Input
Amino acid sequence: MDTSPVSAILGAQAGTTQVGLATDVLRMNADSAAAIVQVLDTANQTARALANVGAGIGTKLDIST
Output
């Protein structure tokens, strides 16, 4: 009996699984990139808000206790 069709079907199923996993990984990477952009944007907004703080503010803060 020729097993070529069976091998072809199993190979196709493995390929489909690999493509599905690759799609999931790419989606997670895109979500991570979007989260990083959001963090950087928030940090930029915070930096702009602190740009108007007077000189010396926060320099004598004791956080040792």
Summary: The chain has a mean pLDDT of 86. The helical segments are 4-50.
